[in-house]
Automatic annotation (TrEMBL):
It is an enzyme of class 3 (hydrolase). Residues 257-706 form the Peptidase M3A/M3B catalytic domain. Gene3D superfamilies: Collagenase (Catalytic Domain), Endopeptidase. Chain P, domain 1, Neurolysin, domain 3. This is oligopeptidase A. Residues 71-184 form the Oligopeptidase A N-terminal domain. Belongs to the peptidase M3 family. One of its GO terms (molecular function) is hydrolase activity.
């Protein structure tokens, strides 16, 4: 649907504007909103980032939602019998103005937030959820979708249409669209109650993080790095404890403390505080909250005829069902446990040699692992940084995209494409052979106030055939520290990997070749894999020799340093894999067991015993503070997904390693783009992977990457 508000205003200009009612006037003003306007300028239109204002956000989103709902109503009330053309196509096209408004909304919430914007966000959030339930609960609309779907089950549509209708139908069905009126009411009640419990769960965890702070004096900071001591002093001062040092009850404070502190008793105290969050049998205890959540989730999926929550959730994931996910985890589990035994033995040897009369406990693991690391790997991260300069790394990204995707990146002249901050740079992406424009790549590299932490990728516009395949507008966002003029930005190896990772998401957007917007969607245990895979190019010879150069001397990073980095990647994998896997296993067990029989405190204990959990390690997220799973539904029965994506990553990387041209093999690269990137969700992920690899993924490569024994070698 096109916006034509300006023309209307032109007509009214001849009449007296005062003849408009107040409501009409508001309507006119809203439709005039810059943030709803079609994009103009180069590249078939780009967002007007230089014209956006916080005050415009609320009216734009509200008007955009109203317009989208009107379009949906029109589709739902069409008197013609439902078809793909008169129902699904217009649905896929609808809501364009709102999409544009949300692009600006996204920039405000992630890149340039402010107290004013957060107020707007607070006001809009209930309205946005009301708007989306108006669509998902639109009975007339669902009946049309269902009819198109049922028709397509009898007589298939062409492949992309078939997949589109199946994905859309499944989405509605999974949110209860097929329920009777009575059951729908119960369903809505359950959701309301769940969202209250999710908030309570996370508030309890937050309270426990704030309520348990350990204060140290000058005699208790032995072993801690200077930077840690400094920030601990600030944290103490902020809490009215001048002259002391605060170890707060968060991962970013706990983890380095347990790694470096020489004070064993304090390590135990910090460890106990952290892993008891939500489990202190007081007003913030989360065990009862977990019981209620599990019962309600189970009741809700039972209304829809599913045995358990995991079965409902996983049906449209690559794993498809809980059994497949469990099988993978159980295959890796014994190797992880065996590695833990070796790691503990290494650590015990060091403790014995130091003449400490102790056996390794959970609060000793990180501390002694760090000693083993220094002994075995001796990697100086400051030295590595000297070879990782941001400008060079950016060129390394472009080189990789050129080799694999046949893309060329050239900087867009400043001022031709509007940006929301002077630090943002824009590149034009073209096909090297045809010269055709693929899209734009925006990079917002530096940390600033109002920008969220971490690194992420997003699109301002995706390409679909239905919408005329306009240039893709992709973006990457990081939080590097902005240097003084003329100074280089030097980044850690981890951050360089993340830079490649996020660029992988951007390439996934840029290379999309699908007909309908629904097919752009992601599959949770699959979409991280493509970008994880791209990280592997950082340590390929071609990238190392051309781009990993000393920022002053231009000397290529020494081979032995690269070897150390690679070797260090298998370090402490027993600990890392075990603490992760046990959380993922528990997540699945909670959601495949009848909740009537679950008392979380007992259940966790029993299950850990059954799994043979080593006493030196604890779950990365113990149940009473497992926010991924209990403070919302994003990762409930989805925590295994990280491992699932890792299996695909390792297996696909070996496809390159084994090819004649290695990581730059043209044939494998071609298959990579064609089957793993371009189709996005237009093809079943398992089928897409099979087309790329010629077989299903197996865990051998993952086991090799983690330095674990490979199952097929022992057969
Ligand atoms: Zn990612």
């Amino acid at each position: 649907m096109k916006l034509k508000p300006l023309k209307l205003i032109g007509i009214f200009a001849f009449a007296s504007i005062t003849t408009l009612t107040q409501a009409q006037q508001n309507d006119q003003n809203q439709m005039d909103n810059t943030l709803l306007q079609e994009w103009d300028g180069p590249y078939e239109g780009v967002p007007d980032f230089d014209k956006m204002e916080v005050d415009l956000i609320k009216p734009a989103i509200e008007k955009g939602m109203q317009m989208h709902l009107a379009e949906i109503d029109k589709i739902a009330s069409n008197p013609e019998p439902p078809t793909f053309e008169n129902t699904i196509i217009p649905m896929e096209k609808a809501g364009e103005a709102l999409d544009r408004a949300f692009t600006y909304y996204g920039i405000y919430s992630s890149n340039v937030s402010s107290p004013e914007f957060r107020e707007v966000q607070k006001e809009l959030s209930p309205k946005i959820s009301e708007y989306s339930s108006k669509i998902s609960q639109n009975e007339a609309l669902f009946q049309r979708i269902k009819s198109v779907y049922e028709e397509a089950q009898k007589d298939s549509l062409e492949a992309e249409q078939q997949r589109t209708i199946e994905l859309i139908y499944k989405d509605f069905e999974m949110s209860g669209a097929n329920l009777s009126k009575e059951d729908k009411e119960r369903y809505a009640e359950i959701n309301k109650e769940l969202s209250r419990l999710y908030t309570q769960f996370s508030n309890n965890v937050l309270a426990e993080e704030e309520n348990y702070v350990v204060y140290l004096d000058d005699n208790q900071i032995s072993g801690l790095p200077e930077s840690y001591v400094k920030s601990a002093a600030t944290a103490a001062a902020e809490r009215g404890h001048e002259g002391e040092y605060a170890v707060t009850n968060t991962r970013s404070s706990m983890d380095p403390f347990l790694t470096y502190s020489d004070e064993r008793e304090l390590r135990e105290k910090v460890w106990r505080n952290y892993y008891s969050r939500g489990d202190n049998q007081d007003e913030f205890d989360n065990n009862e909250v977990i019981s209620q959540i599990l019962k309600l989730r189970d009741e809700r999926v039972e209304l829809m005829g599913y045995d358990n929550y995991a079965q409902w959730r996983l049906q449209n994931r690559m794993a498809k069902n809980p059994q497949n996910a469990m099988e993978l985890m159980e295959a890796v589990w014994p190797a992880a446990l065996a590695r833990v035994e070796e790691e503990v033995a290494d650590m015990q040897a060091i403790a014995d040699k130091e003449g400490k009369n102790i056996t390794i406990k959970p609060w000793d693991y990180r501390y002694y692992a760090e000693k083993v690391r220094q002994q075995k790997y001796d990697l100086d991260s400051e030295e590595v940084k000297q070879y990782l300069e941001l400008g060079n790394l950016t060129q390394a990204l472009f080189f990789t995209a050129g080799e694999l995707f046949n893309y060329n990146f050239s900087p867009v002249e400043k001022g031709t494409v509007p940006v929301f901050h002077e630090d943002v740079k824009v590149w034009e992406v073209t096909d090297k052979t045809t010269g055709n424009i693929v899209g734009l790549w925006y990079l917002d590299p530096y940390a600033r106030q109002g920008k969220r932490s971490g690194a992420w990728a997003t699109t301002y516009r995706s390409a679909t055939e239905l919408k005329g395949d306009k240039p893709v507008l992709s973006s990457n966002n990081s939080n590097f520290i902005k240097p003084a003029p003329g100074e280089p930005v030097l980044v850690s190896w981890d951050d360089a990997e993340t830079f490649f990772h996020e660029f992988g998401h951007a390439l996934h957007f840029l290379s999309a070749d699908v007909k309908y917007p629904t097919l752009q969607g992601g599959v949770r245990d699959y979409t991280e894999f493509q970008s994880q895979l791209l990280e592997r190019w950082l340590s390929t010879d071609k990238v190392i020799n051309q781009f990993l150069k000393h920022h002053e001397t231009g000397e290529v990073i020494p081979q032995d340093l690269v070897e150390k980095i690679k070797k260090a990647s298998t370090f402490n994998q027993g600990f890392a894999t075990t603490e992760f896997l046990v959380s993922a296993l528990m997540d699945m067990k909670y959601h495949t067991t009848d909740p009537e029989n679950i008392d979380p405190r007992e259940f966790e204990k029993e299950q850990l015993k059954e799994l043979g959990m080593p006493e030196q390690i604890v779950m990365r997220h113990r149940s009473p503070h497992f926010g991924h799973v209990f403070s919302g539904e994003g990762y409930a029965t989805g925590y295994y997904g990280y491992l699932w994506a890792d299996v695909l990553t390792s297996d696909a990387a070996e496809a390159f390693a084994e090819a004649p041209g290695g990581f730059y093999d043209k044939e494998v690269a071609h298959k990579l783009v064609r089957f793993l990137f371009a189709p996005r969700n237009a093809m079943d992920p398992a089928e897409a992977y099979r087309k790329f690899r010629g077989r299903d993924a197996n865990i051998d490569a993952l086991m090799r990457d983690r330095g674990f024994p490979v199952p097929s070698d022992s057969k």
